[in-house]
Amino acid sequence: MTELVFSQWELRGFIEDIITSFDYHSLTKSLLHVKESLKLEYVQVFLYDTPIQYEEWLPPQTANNIIELRGDTISEFDSREQQVPFEHIEHRDKAQSKRLTILYMPIFFNKEQTGILLLEYKRNIPIDAYESIRMGIATAIKGASLIKEVQKISITDDLTKLYNRRGFLTLSYSRLARLKRTNTVAGLMFIDLDGLKVINDTLGHKAGDTAIAATAQILKNSVREEDIIGRIGGDEFTIFASQIDATTIGIIVERIRKNFASYNTAHPENGFTLSCSIGYSLLENYTERAFNAVLTKADSLLYEEKRRKRKAGVSRK
């Protein structure tokens, strides 16, 4: 048998890319990475507009969203109805004059069938690798659907455009299932803006709003796009970051502090200096209870830092 075209670590990376795809375009990019890395000629995803509830496997339905990666061609079709081919077993690649064997895999999450995945089958790729890809796509689609659902309710903070407490917890809890599938370590950070009350009392609430909005932007600039940031209180912010370790989370915390310092240097006209206190901890258990416990621990560590600052005369009340 030919050598495997990927390592288990690479497969884990592929699946992490897939399950953190929050829209069809980013899912296409992730699938293109898989296709190129595994040297597949053919990948096609048919997604139903409405998931189908089922007890047993159902034959293909009409698809409304289609992603097709065939050779060097990338196609995305949104809101175009097309019947999924029921007997699509082989596909002839005319350019290379060879016959491809296609795996036909239903995409489902719990008891909902959301579409069909067609992948070129290669003997040197274990069948469980294909199954991992299918499960990753199913999780990504469920996550994208959840995001669309929660966007219909109030999940963002008007001032900062970050997630509010409800939005932060809803999306973080949904991320836990993905982390469990890939056994990925994650981290929680609790950030408190120092001296907001002093800014409000001395310079007015407009200056306070400027400080809060600036803090939100600093945090956005300090983490990756896929990390979840929330404003869960007046001067309290949280960050949920996946695929990190103790060293990485420490680097992120230092980056946040440096970005606060850079902001102060760039904006002397504000009349105030921004600083923050940060508590953080790693999450290695994927339940909501464990998540809340780690969040509480990060909050406690934050207030320990604030107490140290007060004793040193650094932090304003």
UniProtKB/TrEMBL annotation:
Gene3D superfamilies assigned: 3.30.70.270
Domain of life, source organism: Bacteria
A GO CC annotation given for this chain: plasma membrane
Entry GO MF terms: diguanylate cyclase activity
A biological-process GO annotation: cell adhesion involved in single-species biofilm formation
Coiled-coil features, chain-numbered ranges: none
EC category: transferase
Record's catalysed reaction(s): 2 GTP = 3',3'-c-di-GMP + 2 diphosphate
Domain GGDEF: 184-317
Listed EC numbers: 2.7.7.65
Entries under NCBIfam families matching the protein: GGDEF
Protein name, entry field: diguanylate cyclase
Organism: Chitinivibrio alkaliphilus ACht1
